[in-house]
Structures are given as structure tokens and as C-alpha cells.
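We give the entry.
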Amino acid sequence: MIKWPGTVFSSKKAQRLYTKELHDLLSVHTPPRGNLSKHSRFIFIGIKPGHTYAHLSKYDTSWMFGNSSTVLHKALVSLGIYPYFTNVYKDPFQETDGNVDGIIKELSVILHMYTKIYKVQMPTVVLMGDYPEYDKIECTFNDVLFKRIWHPSYIARSLSEDRMNKWKQQILQ
């Protein structure tokens, strides 16, 4: 589930809501994807897809083959976590202008899906890295648990077993 494009839902109603309300996400540079089933425990949010000039970080492949994604997938598989992945900005060419309206809409639809359709608590939202946009997102949602962890690129730059284990603990705490 981590390495393939697409999204998993627990009901057709949830899938229809997501597709209807977030249809504009289906054609972006790097569309969100992953596990939005009733039992999903995590939503991972990055700031935007990989480096503009990295040939393996363009379009949907950035979720699968980029250096940061490779490290992230390795950690998540070892922890048995199969989350939903998204970015604040869906395009590496998009300026980081501080506008978080798109991700707020996305999380609002997902929150509605979990509370009204699935009737379960929203998964933990894991924010990868330290960006001012994340403050704006956290302030918008009172009923969502947010967690900040190191960005996977930090781990990828000097990968060691000790650093990877500390990072995994950040994810689980």
C-alpha cells in the first residue's frame, strides 16, 4: 500500500465524499495517496514534493522513489504503519507563499469522513519538518492530534541505525 499510487477507503460513501470534494487533488503534480480506511492511524504531511530538479522526485514517483520517501517508507514498513500521504503544496514549483487553504480543505474533508461517515476518531496528523505553515494548520483544527517529527531528508542525509531508531520513536510517541 505504501509503494503504489491510489487511496484506500472503508466505504463507497467515504470514497465518493473524498472524490467529490477533493476532485482537484486528483490532477495535481503530486496527488495525495494512501490509507484513508477506518482503521488508518496516521496522515503524513510534508511541505511539498522533492527538490525541483531531482529527476526521481517529479509527479507521483516522488512518493515512491525520492531519497526522503525511501527512508520514510523503510521506517513505516518496519513499524507496520500504512498511512495517507499528502503535502501542503502539491507541486515543487509552487511558491511557499504561506497559503494553506488547500491542505485545510483536504483535512476538513478527511475529518468529516472520519467523524461522520466512519464515526471514529481522526488519525494522528504527522507533520514532517519544521515549517511556519504547520502552525497555521494546527491552529485551524482543535479536535485533531498533531505530531511533529524530523523531515525524512534529515535522516537521509546521514542515515545511521541510531538516528533511524530515534526517528521511529518520534513517530510512535
Strands lie at 7-9, 33-36, 42-46, 84-87, 124-128, 146-149. The mean pLDDT is 86.
